[in-house]
């Protein structure tokens, strides 16, 4: 269905290759549909015992959704309720749910940039996932950078990260490396690219039914090579500050800390959308008590409100289109963000029986 997704079955392994290198494999609707089509077909196929998803490029596994498409749709006069945007997010989140509960080993080679929608097609559920990172991995949920929020199940997996790491990653949108991904529980294995030929041979020669165990044995000696985690080094500060209970309280706590980490974090947060940081905090708080389907349904509601609000369109304009890096956030400061404005993002858009993800 998409020229940017190649699917094949070899030796009992379903292989999905993302091949849109010029856009860092940013997901289009056609790509989402192609991945979903293959996974749905292989789910009940006895000839497929495991799935591997990877990139054709060294630079990126997947940098997220196609945000230029989002912007172009909005600029064309189509609101947040447009059919194209509705279809994209509904089908992307349904794909995330399919992956989370996939009944076969689902192996994601998370080499290079892994952000946003790339996390959605690699995280999976604990019963199926095999998430491999490398020294080139650059991982983030950077949505607050563009006035969005960490979606594709971010409310589920960020809220279940150790301590306050989920709040830190979601509110700052910072990029982390392989060691950090492993520490935060967002990856399972480390495989240096210097040994990639051996991993490629393993993938090609191991029957699908034995692949997950073979990979675990292969990567075990490499774990220490991932290096030290910056998240681990700053864990006490992260838990102290980002466990404060609200974005305003987090910022106030950081201001009492003159460490380089706290000051850098304040600088980063000062560039993010104040409104969407507050929405993100509330989303992660709520996500901690919801299952995967309810998290995705809640995120789907927030998407509609977000595009109708327009914050994300301004963020994309400033950081991706015009590249002036001067987004005009509304409101412009945390002090101006009201609780009512935050809670409006969580108001139901559809009755339960009509929700586009009601069948999850």
From TrEMBL:
SUPFAM superfamilies: ClpP/crotonase (SSF52096). CDD domains: crotonase-like (cd06558). Residues 13-346 form the Enoyl-CoA hydratase/isomerase domain. Keywords: Hydrolase. It holds the Pfam family ECH_2. PANTHER family: 3-HYDROXYISOBUTYRYL-COA HYDROLASE (PTHR43176:SF6), 3-HYDROXYISOBUTYRYL-COA HYDROLASE-RELATED (PTHR43176). This is Enoyl-CoA hydratase/isomerase family protein. The lineage of its organism: Bacteria, Pseudomonadati, Pseudomonadota, Betaproteobacteria, Burkholderiales.
């Amino acid at each position: 269905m998409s020229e940017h997704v190649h699917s094949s079955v070899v030796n009992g392994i379903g292989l999905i290759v993302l091949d849109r290198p010029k856009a860092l494999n940013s997901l289009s609707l056609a790509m989402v549909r192609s991945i979903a089509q293959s996974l749905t077909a292989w789910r009940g196929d006895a000839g497929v015992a495991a799935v591997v998803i990877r990139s054709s490029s060294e630079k990126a596994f997947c940098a997220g959704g196609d945000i230029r498409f989002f912007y172009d749709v909005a600029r064309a006069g189509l609101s947040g309720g447009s059919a194209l945007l509705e279809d994209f997010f509904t089908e992307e989140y349904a794909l995330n749910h399919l992956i989370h509960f996939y009944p076969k080993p689902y192996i994601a080679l998370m080499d290079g940039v892994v952000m946003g929608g790339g996390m959605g097609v690699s995280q999976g559920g604990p019963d199926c996932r095999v998430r491999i990172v490398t020294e080139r991995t650059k991982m983030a949920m950077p949505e607050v950078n563009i006035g969005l929020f960490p979606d594709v199940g971010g409310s589920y997996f960020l809220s279940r990260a150790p301590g306050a790491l989920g709040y830190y990653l979601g509110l700052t949108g910072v990029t982390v490396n392989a060691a950090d991904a492993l520490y935060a529980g967002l990856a399972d294995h480390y495989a240096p690219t210097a040994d990639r030929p051996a991993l490629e041979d393993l993938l090609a020669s191991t029957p699908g039914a034995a692949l997950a165990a073979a990979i675990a044995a292969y990567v075990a000696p490499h774990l220490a090579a991932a290096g030290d985690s910056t998240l681990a080094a700053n864990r006490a500060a992260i838990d102290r500050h980002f466990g404060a209970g609200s974005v305003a309280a987090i910022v106030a706590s950081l201001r009492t800390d003159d460490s380089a980490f706290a000051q850098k974090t304040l600088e980063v947060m000062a560039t993010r959308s104040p409104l969407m940081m507050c929405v993100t905090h509330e989303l992660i708080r709520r996500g901690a008590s919801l299952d995967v389907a309810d998290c995705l349904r809640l995120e789907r509601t927030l998407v509609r409100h977000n595009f109708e609000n327009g914050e994300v369109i301004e963020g994309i304009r400033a950081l991706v289109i015009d590249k002036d890096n001067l987004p005009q956030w509304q409101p412009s400061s945390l002090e101006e963000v009201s609780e009512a404005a935050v809670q409006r993002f969580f108001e139901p858009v559809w009755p339960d029986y009509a929700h586009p993800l009601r069948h999850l």
